[in-house]
Model the fold of this input.
Amino acid sequence: MRYGMVINLDKCIGCQTCAVVCKMHNSQPPGTWWNRAFTQGATYHQNAVGKDGEYKMEYLPVSCQMCDNAPCQKICPTGATYTDENGVVLVDYKRCIGCRACIAACPYGVRQFNWKDAKALKENEIGYEYGYPYDVKDEPKRLVYTLNRPSGVVEKCTFCTQYVAKGEQPACVQACPARARIFGDLDDPNSEVSRLVRKHQVYRLLEQYGTEPKVYYISSGKLKNIEEASE
Done:
């Protein structure tokens, strides 16, 4: 099994719901975002992606690309970054020494350094909860990703492993109002993600680096300057 995701950019409305829901359900400290949605065609990204040279607003959600050939994993000196049996790239917080070599190695700029202590934030900052919607302290060890996250470690998208292990979809997939995100097993030819990859002309970010991402994008026209938009 290899979990992957397809994001249909023709459906994405740039509402940032995926980013906010991800932040809530994975209890990210203030200033930390595992999921972001960039706006192409805005004043700071003047990319002519429309017809006849006209500008068109197009949105690009970017999170961990769950690479099959992950540079972050290769460079990690302690083995804290690893790929589990389902092809999901994760971080063992007990092994992470906060050297941030993985942040430098990731070409997608999606890894975040946690300067905050989740437990302290829960006690001292109004409105901040970790372990939302519940504290998963009684769950198996591999699911405890939202609890006891110390400061001084690197974090990133986990494909909501705490939900997927229960047979549920990642929070961003469940919450997307445009149904632009599809999650499933890329190794299953009958899964929706596999059918979409076969049916459409899909793109992956920065394929020239050989990272073999498991996140695919559908767009009616190939994105221009996609490298700049993902930075």
Summary: Residues 84 and 90 are 7 Å apart (CA to CA). The radius of gyration is 18 Å.
